[in-house]
Amino acid sequence: MKRQLSKLIIALTIIGWLPHTIQGAEALQKLRVGVPSLALSYMPLYVAQDKGFLKRAGLEVEFIQMNTSIQPQALINGNINFLPGLSAGIPAAVAGMPLVVVMNFYHFTPWTLVTQKDINKPQDILGKKIAVSGLRTTPHQLMSAWFKKYELNEKDVTYIYTGGTGGSFATLASEQVAGAVLVSPYDDKAVSKGFKKFQMIGDLLDIPTAGLVTTRAEITNNRDRVQKTIAAVFDAIAWIRANRTDTATMLAEKFKVTAAEANGAYDTLIGMLNKDGRLPLKVVNGYLDGLRRERPIPADVDPQKLIDFSLLPVGRS
After folding, report:
1. What are the pLDDT digits (tens) for 244-268?
2. Judging by DSSP bridges, how do beta strands 112-115 and 179-182 pair with one another?
3. Separation of alpha carbons 277 and 309, rounded Å
4. What is the pTM for the complete model shown?
5. CATH superfamily to which 26-108+207-306 belongs
6. Interior CA angle at 97 toward 94 and 98, to 5°?
7. Is the terminal CB of the chain with fewer CB neighbours within 10 Å at N or C?
């Protein structure tokens, strides 16, 4: 009788303990990332989600669409955990927000000025409208550098702020503007609709493009989550490098482009990716110099305080 009672107690204990174990094993940490629109530069994040790398790391990601201009404050308020636009995060950090870059995806982004076919020389842009993602975003800053290169007055054009690259493409495709600053696959998609690649302008400035920006509080209070996110994105990038066909298929489906356009976008993406997830201080300093031409920035701003790569995986490239 005692033996049967002992077995019954053990069985009841196991039954009571099992649901908690299953629940614990299945519990995923919530992760919210703010993005302005669908963009090739966020492809490592899409792959990390779609191919299960974030889930295997114990994270459940939600992409929240929001304009680039409000993302830094959303990060501070705790509405999101990361924003991917380095050209949004770094100026906010310089302005005093406790934000920091923890990962950089790219060493270069081939932004292209795509125009209507009747734009044949730089002067033809004057008096027209140009679509860019937003004020002081990478496309906007590159266009400013482009006007300086050709000694043209930037005030002779009207900028249309679209909220993201996808919005810029849509604005151009509907012929609301004479040109737009786009990146693959939107530039090729625009060409297929009768527009032309006027000039590649991504090399005019060293501007950080995409990666992971978070708050210092997130690093302090949720260091494990930050580290897991970074590791999952590294896994996604490795998958992209190793799986051309599957990545191109994913690009075609996600961006609604042809197989040829998707393969071109894949080549562009591979050429953009950096190896170690770091952002060179030279690029940060060059970017700060560019910001100083637009607004007052103290000369003693320490670029080292804008980045923190201590959570990058060791020995990964």
Report:
1. 999 999 999 999 999 999 999 999 9
2. antiparallel
3. 8
4. 0.80
5. Periplasmic binding protein-like II (3.40.190.10)
6. 105
7. N
